[in-house]
């Protein structure tokens, strides 16, 4: 794996001073340096503490009884045999939990989106395979599972709704009768004069593309441990493998009927999440509820079948895409219709629109097309809920648009790279037709660098020779824009008008060490490293003197959590705002101690020095002691506020960009696709740590390979779920991921503190479309059109067989 970095400065912003170029090396700062991850020794030596490591005195274990049917009425539940098992303590059903408030989706916060209510345990109707209907408590997880298997549920099977287009039909059975419709939301938006652009177009390309159903499948499944302290005034302590401790507390407290002050959420080390763990699940409610009812702590650890059947699914979207173009290849209009197979419930808090609406809103991407329109539908079906998983709806939207652009290039006889460059926006700040304001990027430069990475002219020569030899090679490109730094502005621009609030607190302790608390959470991103780098630079201290604290609502300041590539932007901004205040106080304390002007003090490596006066210094530890115990000699604000500052930060819109390029070989006899090369160009603004950026991009690319070729959550025609293990749900291993070629461009953000942009989802957004386009390029002699992912060998072989049958001459065996 190779990593190359260059820098650009098209926006000429104040943040540009943080960028680097080959001619001007970065100053001796931590930010930008490949600092090794400080959390790795603890995690790699087995000293991490994950949710299954949490053990409380007297703890019981929970196992959930789940529906084997896609749609069924619950006639009765008999727990007699289960309760007869020695060690089984209790069995609770939805009726036993009638004191809980309903779980309500975020529909009321979204105009045009229906709110949906559900009971944490289904009471009358189960709506998908895996829907929880009862919970068994026992002295061990094995006894709880034994009891679960003995709970007798009498079912009345109902007709399942499995096809999203059938679900939209007025005569369709209803998944949730209380809504009166299966469609959670129908939304439309347009900009410019789309109809005229299509009417006057010299050429119109139309495709339909189905992005398959996938999930996160993290190494560590979900888990919840809860205890109820009756003597403490009715207080819940909840341990959860969540990405968003404060937001989880805010959303489950009203369902449990307590104030947020009566509920603490603690998220220990989390073994992967990828968006799945920023959803509120029934188990997040049920486990603390039964801890209160049983009077004992309760622990539940999800198994892999539950993860796959009843967690969160993603990206199951049918896309209809149209492009209007002039004869010379200028694209004049985009139009899309996006239908998400939403599953049985509207996920909390993001709803199924986290896929469909963002696909529509970002339809124009990095192209200067001014006439754009989309419509979306979000029908419920009797499947697991759709929610936020890495890349969300940007992935299917990217697939539809980029596949359509390659189709347009073939129709016009133009090179697909040149067609994209012809229509691409410039590097300056740019406002899209739907009002998103890009903060400067390297759109054309990233595509050109990806083209060079695969040696495009040489590849075309090699491709022609291979075809003469009966081998089918292809190349595909996928330039992208990724919304990052998800805060109020970015969310509103993306069609998700939810307010965001994030803070960080910076404290210099009396011994000169530094403690930072944040409402973000790390589940593999390396926050203990990157946020310490930022803090050390701002305070002028050694990085190993900084401790990053997060994951506990009792000890960390409020924040909305980690997802949507937001942590680098929010973490840098909130820490910098707080650290600047603390640094200013340290400087004034040092100036008083050294009898110098504030402007002459510099803080470097934990020492305050007077500029131009060698030897006139004071270490940070002495400054801190003076700040705490110096009495009236200290500045007034230090006497009042000490050496702690807490600041909120809500950035403007920040957008990363880049391009993926894939070179593949397709074996037309078997349908197997081999990825020969996968190159990625990433522009995430000022890079905090190249090692961590490299890891994020590489992991996201591997995820994208899975989306393109392997991952498929399948249901039978009767709604039976058939992808309940990792033998049936496949994701990439080292044998499917080639050696990756990674390149970096730095275009500082015009709006964020430090010029930083996010990075976490780029590879997942871009790689699938690059791979699909490469496969279509390889199979272009057959005239094959790819219409779905994953591109399994069976699917590819079927397309080749059909193409050969339609052609003259003998069919290939």
TrEMBL record:
Residues 1-22 have a biased composition (Low complexity). It comes from the Bacteria. GO terms for molecular function: iron ion binding; oxidoreductase activity. InterPro entries: Ald_Oxase/Xan_DH_a/b (IPR000674), Ald_Oxase/Xan_DH_a/b_sf (IPR036856), Ald_Oxase/xanthine_DH-like (IPR016208), AldOxase/xan_DH_MoCoBD1 (IPR008274), AldOxase/xan_DH_MoCoBD2 (IPR046867), AldOxase/xan_DH_Mopterin-bd_sf (IPR037165). Signal peptide: none annotated. The keyword Nucleotide-binding does not apply. Residues 45-159 form the Aldehyde oxidase/xanthine dehydrogenase a/b hammerhead domain. The keyword Oxidoreductase applies. Keywords: Molybdenum, Oxidoreductase. Residues 1-32 are annotated as: Disordered. PANTHER family: ALDEHYDE OXIDASE 1-RELATED, XANTHINE DEHYDROGENASE. This is Aldehyde dehydrogenase.
